[in-house]
Each structure stands twice: as C-alpha cells, then as structure tokens.
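Supplementary Note 3. Input sequence used for the single-chain structure prediction.
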Amino acid sequence: MKLKILFIISLSIILNNCASHTITEIDNEFFGTYISTDIILQEDYLYVRVDANGILIWFGDNQVVSPPSGDDAIIIGPDYISGVSPNYSFQNVDVTGSLVFLEKRVLVTFYRNKPPYVNAQNVSCLLIE
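The predicted structure, written as discrete structure tokens, is reproduced below.
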C-alpha cells in the first residue's frame, strides 16, 4: 500500500514538472509607445506603451506622450498576455483585447469591462518612440 502511494505521488510530481508552463513575452522589437492615427474618444488619441512590464493603454491629446497617473490608464501585466509574434491577446479583470504588430504599426482592439466603458475596434497606431 505504501509503495502504491509513493508511486502515485512520484508520478504526479513527474507529470506536473513535464506540464507546459509557457509564459508569453512580447518580442522586444515591438517595445515602444504608439499613438492612434485618428482621434478615437471625443478629442483624444489612443496611446499604447509596450515594454517588459506589459501593456499600458491610455487616452490623451496628440502632444501627450507620458501616461496619466491613477486609474486613467489601463494596465495589463505580462501574466495576462498570450500569443505568438506578431499576434498577442490580453485579458484581465479590467480589459480584454488584442494587438497585431505590423512593422512600425500596431492594430489594437480592446473592450474595457468597467466604467468608463470603451470599445475600440482595429485602431491603427504608429510607433512614436
């Protein structure tokens, strides 16, 4: 009986270690800040910053490059991003969406799940820095 229990425990440890634990990281060639080519929300442009810390999304005029502080920015940590270059998707409690990178451009689609609700479909953004 003890041998059977020891075998089951050993087998479960081996299977757990063999399981795929993939963490998707966005290729660093896509790191940077992007701005939408057109006004998206009232008089504001969409900004997307991609780096090793994840994705940061916010709205601002065409002169604002720095993200706002507080709850005005949407933050997606690296643990909530999956995909294969150049297509990535993300989802957390606040937002669901995807990024498709095309050279110095990214197509952004996302839906914000809490107020203020935002639904952005296939927004073209250019790399600015």
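Strands lie at 32-36, 45-51, 54-60, 74-76, 81-84, 87-91, 95-102, 105-112, 119-127. Confidence is low (pLDDT under 50) at residues 17-22.
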